[in-house]
Amino acid sequence: MTLNGWLQIACFLGAVLLATPFIGGYMARVFTRQRTWLDPFMRPLERLVYRTTGVNENHEMRWTEYAMALLLFSVVSLLTLYLMQRLQGLLPFNPQGFGGVAPDLAFNTAVSFTTNTNWQAYSGESTMSYFTQMAGLAYHNFVSAAVGIAVAIAFIRGIAQQETETIGNFWVDMVRASLWVLLPIALVGSLFFVSQGVVQNLKPYDTVRTVEGATQVIAQGPVASQEVIKQFGTNGGGFFNANSAHPYENPTPLSNWLAMFGIFFISSGLTYTLGTMTGSRRHGWAVWSAMAFLFLVGVTVTYWAEARGNPLLTAAGADQTATAMSPGGNMEGKEVRFGIANTALFATATTDASCGAVNGWHDSFTPLGGLVTLANIQLSEVVFGGVGAGMYGVLVYIILSVFIAGLMVGRTPEYLGKKIHAFEVQMAMLTVLIFSLLILMFTGISSVSGFGTSSIFNPGPHGLAEILYGFSSGAANNGSAFGGLSANTPWYNTTIGLSMLFGRFFMIIPPLAIAGSLSRKKRIPESLGTFPVTTPLFTTLLVGVIVIVGALTFFPALSLGPIVEHFLMQNGQVF
Fold first, then answer.
1. Taking residues 322-329, what's their average pLDDT?
2. Composition of the chain by helix, strand, coil, percent to 5
3. Domain assignment present for 403
4. How many domains in the chain?
5. Closest by Cα among 467, 401, 397 to 432
6. Quick check: is 160 in a domain?
7. What CA–CA distances, in Å, run from 457 to 135, 306, 454, 460?
8. Is 0.90 surpassed by the pTM of this model?
9. Which of 214, 460, 463, 488 has its CB 3.0 to 4.6 Å from that of 456, i.e. a possible disulfide?
């Protein structure tokens, strides 16, 4: 570890902190329909969308109607992307002549991009046409992120309102998230990425001859326009198989920094939006502090583990000492342009949020470094989390935290003036149970069945970790992978597809139900027995609940995977 590396991590978190009130306050104005500087441009476009689609923007929805609109929109989007992949050989903008995608892979990919997961069991530059990339995958990068933001805003609205049956209008929330938040970022960000050297064209691939005389195909394509929304929308699906380690997606240190910054930008801002819309900015900062603490713990452990190196490589004769000419530590699977600090920072950020973009291979991390990325996902990705998903995910844990606090003092728990009753706690626990059930059930079946174990390249604890990571990534809608799992098989395409589908929508409905219930309640004044949700004590309790729930659920599985692998490595045994 170096001072330079720590300064980069500190500057990154500092930039996120400074940007939080800017984007958070802006989103609060957007979703409370206050005037913004983009209104002269976006308001006419918004009205045109409503006229074209027949949406009544003044119609307010109960939570059941909100959820039904969300589900129907997602089903239609999923089927459209599935058909687009199957028929891409007949569609335009396909200079490489790629044929239709296999049914199981098309299902997996359609579910993946509809759910904001962007798990890729294929190599993008050798599978998807330009048309599929632009009209299918990039489109879903926008709308799946907008859906997540819409649900988070609906949840916050349910907390902020009182004695009303509605939580907003799904179509309005999604359109405003797309037009006012995501589209401006994408337009500016795409131009920035082009300036850094990210390609953006519709040319056929180039075939060149290397200095050794071999032939090499250089992929082209509309990359920059997809790159920015992949990061800021916490999608993560790369145009190239190497993702953000590829120089055409991530060519410079500045593009690498912006890519990491984009992962947290909107999710961090939503904590300020929570505080603004509920009238308690101190509460928003308390939630932000809990997320920031968990992030710092994760990046510290990852950086330490990777900088410390792998004793097996030292025993084999590799010099892992940091010098002026060498970064030292475990550089396996890492881009030499970014080194250990930026790779550890990128890996922590992308697994804290449901992004999944990578600039280094998590499969090549040391066991403890890999453990952090896996544990981040299994904490339900509420450490800033995905756009919207992180916010409604952490609100579920807040419900559980204030419930526990209420038990401690022997009175009905309250949250920002709303009484928390059995229904809210039941819905919160249902969310937690669905998540763990999906991961552990499919991992257990895959780890004892030939159709599951035949896809792993590393038998033993590392192979188990690869399977566990795959289903954790799917259920949490992250999309990253350890990389040692050959997931493009009928079994994994189907089961990870189901994990993504249920992990998204079965974990959206309970938070919407909580929002509907809270919206109907009357706000009561604070009393001496009210547990304050604006103090360091609340932040500590929230962190404790998140960690304890994750540990109780997944520690046995982690013990058989990366923890055993760590001790084997320390004892000089190859795993």
1. 75
2. 65, 5, 30
3. no
4. 1
5. 397
6. yes
7. 35, 22, 8, 10
8. yes
9. 463
